[in-house]
Structures are given as C-alpha cells and as structure tokens.
User: Fold this.
Amino acid sequence: MDSKVPVSSLKGVGKQAAETLRDMNIETVEQLVMTFPYRHEDFQLKDLAETPHNERVTVEGRVESEPSVLFLGKNKSRTTVSVLVGRHLVKAVFFNQHYVKTKLQIGAVISLTGKWDRGRQLITVSSHSIGPRTDGADFEPVYSLKGAMHQKTFRKLMRQGLDATKGQLADCLPDSLRREYQLLPFEEALETVHFPANGEALKQARRRFVYEELLLFQLKMQALRKKNREAEGGSFIDYDLVRLKAFIDALPFDLTSAQKRVVNEICRDMKEPFRMNRLLQGDVGSGKTVVAAIALYAAVTAGKQGALMAPTEILAEQHANTLEEWFRPFGVNVAMLTGSVKGKKRKEVLKRLAAHEIDILIGTHALIQPEVLFSNLGLVITDEQHRFGVDQRRVLKDKALNPDVLFMTATPIPRTLAISAFGEMDVSVIDEMPAGRKEIETYWMKKEMFGKIVGRMEKELQAGRQAYVIAPLIEESETLEYQNAVELYQQLTVYFDGRHKVGLMHGRLHPDEKEQTMREFAEGHIAVLVSTTVVEVGVNVPNASFMLIYDAERFGLSQLHQLRGRVGRGSEQSYCVLLADPKTEIGKERMNSMTETNDGFILAEKDLELRGPGDFFGRKQSGIPEFRMADLIHDYRALEAARKDAETLIASESFWTSEETKCLRSMLRDSGVLEGGRLD
Assistant:
C-alpha cells in the first residue's frame, strides 16, 4: 500500500473515526505510523521481593480464596481476593469492578497490574487478565488521542498501518551516520517504537529517532545560518585596527580575558564578507556594554554607522551617557532617539542621521519608525533581545542592506537551549566577571522574619544606600495567597515615614510614570523601590545594595538571578534576601541553589533541569521547537552530535549532490528552507 493513501482506507476507519484522526493531524497512513506513543505501559513480570513500596507492578499468580465484595454506596464497590504470587500470598483489591467476582475461581491463573503496598502486602489493581499470559506483550504503547478514539482501537489501526507500509517508507539517515552511531534501520526502529519486544529494543529505537529528529532540526538551523551568512551584499566592515586598539587602551579599566575573546569573535565576523548574526550572552554585570562599544567603534572607523536598541527609555539613556563618555575623546557623534524626543529636536536628529552627521544612534523601539533613515548603517545591536518581538528586531535590521547584527542578553541561556532556540546564530559567552566585583551575599529566610529583615534594610539606608523590594503580584488576589506590591508599598511607607522615601513600580503604571519613578530612584530621591518584576531588566543604580524578594518561591531561578543582579553594581557589599516558605522539595532546592552560587549559567542549567525548556523561556515566546521524541535536557549529547554533523553536511559539496543525502534535502525542502535543492 502507498504510504500517502488516506487513513480512511484502513479497516475500521469510518467517517467519525476519520474526522477524529484529522483533528489529530492524521490524514494519511504515513502520518499515522509517524505518530509516536508518548509512553509505554510496562507489563513485564516483576519479583515482588525486589519491587519498592508504592511502585506500579505486573505479576502473575493463582487465586487462593473466594473473592469478597463490599458495596460502598451507589456504583461503588471493593472486591478483595487472595492471590499466590511466587512465594508471596497477597491481597488483590479491585475498586468498582464487582463483576470480576464471577471470574475469580479458586485455582485460576491471573495477571495483575497495579500499585504495590509492601507493608500491607496488597496490590490495588488497575488492569488484569484471566489465564496465563501468552501474547508476550510486555510493553503497550500509549498515544495522545482526541475525541472518542480509544487506545485499543488506535493500536489496532497502528498495527494495520505498519503492516501496510512495510517497504514503502524511505530511510533518510545516510548509511555512514547510521554506522557511526550504530543506529537501527528506519523500518525496524519504527516497528519497535510502537511495539517493542523489550526495554532495550525500545531504548535503541528511541535513540535512532531522537538523533534523526535533532539532525533534521540542526540541518534547518545550519542551512538558515549559511543563507544569512551568504546573503547578497553582506556587510564587510574593514575597521581600522590601530584606532580600535587605541580606543580599547583608553578605557578606564582592563578587559577581562572573556571580554577579549568575545571582542575577537565579533571583530572577526565584522571583517568577513557575510552578515554577522551573533548572540552575546553575559551574566548581569559581566561587561557586555563595553563589548558593544568596541564593536560600534570598529564600525565607525570603517565609515559605517551603528545602532543600539534598548527595551526601555531609561536604559537607552544610560547606554547613551556611558558611550558618550567613552567616545568623546575620539570624536564620535552619539545621539539618542526615544519616544520623548519630539518636535524640532526629533527632526534635527533624523536630518543629521540621514546626512551621516551622527555615527551612533541609541534608542528604544523609536529606532524602528519608518522615518528613521540611516546613511550607511553597518552594525545593529539589540540589548536584552528577548524583550523585542521578532518583527521589531527585523525592522531595525532592514534599515540597511544586510548590516551585521549582534543580539545581547543578560539572561544566561544553557548551551542546550542556546544551540536549539538560537541555532541559526553564532553564540559568544562572557563567562567571567570584572575584577573587584564583590559577590552578592544571598540569604533564604522564612516570612516570620520580615520585621528583622526590614530592620537590616534600614541599616543600609542609614548608611546612605538604597534598596529594592520585589513582590510577585501588583494587587491583592482572591485566589493567590501571595504578597502584593501595593500592600507592601503601603506597609513600608508607614514604617519608614519621615525617614526614607518609598516608591512604587509595576507594569500597570503609565510608561511616563514608570520612567519618572525609575529616574527618581536612579538619582537617589527614592530610597526604597517596591516593585514587581518590571525591574528585572532595568537601570544601573550602583548605590542600591539591598534587595528583598517576597514570595521568592514564585519565581524561576533565572528570574531570581536577574532580579538579584539589580544590586551589587557598586563598590559596597550587597545583599539579597529571599523571603520564602516553599512547600515542595523542588522549591527548597531552588532556594538553596540561589544561596550557593552567583553564577547565572549554573543556575540556568539547574532551572532547565527543574522546570523544563518551555517554562524556562515562557511557553508563548520561547521559540523552542516541539519535538516528537527528543528531550532537550536529557538528549543534549545527541543534540551536540547532531549540530556537529549538520554543520559538516551543510558545508560539504556532496550534501547538495549525493544520492545518499537526497532524502534529507527533500525533507529540508518540505520544511521551506530549501528551494530546488539549494539554499533559496
């Protein structure tokens, strides 16, 4: 049977079943057999002596007593029978299945699956079969189904589909890769992943599909990367190395070895005739801004303009002030364009930009307005790139003919996610902090100590320093028992009355109010800023030395680390207190992790391990692909291998011409990356 035939051609697929399958995105027999189970029920017989308490177990035994039935109310019952399993006489309990009484004859052989209570020597039965097992089906596939489709029905259809497509489906993996990793042939792996003979066979089938899935994904990423790099008119920035070294030597501090490495990676890209598409990761306070400044100055020495886009006006202003100070001795013209630059001043900036009288333009999303025209834009830098939508980033990039692009983020992204979500980019990492930075002391305390903590905060305020207080909610919630910013603001205003000014910041404030509050805090007019997580990425306030995070168990590790990074930016010792009463072991583990390390990358890996990739980024905008079989956390070795192999394949001439890779090229074309066998 042709694998492309409609699934309705299979026996037992009527109109209703066909509609249900269509809702599951299954219209052909091929789509059916490529719908993998999300788990397998394990019906291997176990030895009760080796089975832990409360584990699910399958056993075979002989009925030793007459069953007793206890009716517990309407349609509720409990049936109990003694079963001899090996040397163990156990009780088997069936809930709401009183009809089994007639089948449980003394001496009958029975298979039971259920939860094992070691102390009471009892199995709470979830499924059973009468008579000795003959089918040998130790593993039963469980699929994600919709509507009235049942597992039993779907398994029968799957059996039909596999039988019908034997010899019809191509094995897309080149033999050389299959041999290198000792992977099962496609057809054998497909049969096994649905109906495995044993646990080891299932493991090998899964290995094959995990690698194939990750290889195809990485081929897409590498093909896109090649396409971007070889885009027509890629920006070639022939910077002046002598002037660039003079600028670096004039900086008021020495670069760390990590900064030097990253600068070299970026400068090497800028010299190449292809478009740079690089992600710069650096922990809070690791010195990404100076790397951005060096890259911008390199562009200026080549006669190009540069643009730096920040997510907030106050952050853009902070960048502008820093860069103006560094660039002033070198005659670089820096200008700022944000929503508050209006009228005559705005027109003047736009006119000077178009005439190339401005070398570097710094701003917010105002940079992507249609009337903002550059004369010769060579480099685009986006700070906290995840704060901008894909379209916003693309509009800025389109202000020039293929400018070099550098994305910066202070959110440490574990390598496994970086090479997946940002697989089409090159990734640079600043993994070293500048010398002289004092590590933030972090403490986890219970909520009853709130009064003591506020007293400790006041000592910092009396010494002339400032503090952040973070709450998870804006206002009181009927459903969530968590502290809210408004209530905390009111409490602290009363507590510090006449001694220290308290400010309030949250997402519902008008942008102008937010800017004003942040400005007052930055200038020292506000001593304590009570806020929600809107300060996660915010202004640099070196004088802030104390942070209290209320209900800290509500936040992910990476978010807690981002918040903590608002303090510790000056020369004074800084403190972060996590106020939390976590109810789960994972919650306690997260709090302990925060007190044990200040390394954002270690915390990011831990966060990924504890919460998974979707929750790490936020499901809606994660950009993390949904895989049928692969798991980014546990299959990271396969991901690394697939990336390496995809890079080699895309770079080789034989990939584009060989018969062996024809199937992979076809899959790439179906995904929209290729057209006619080459990069479109």
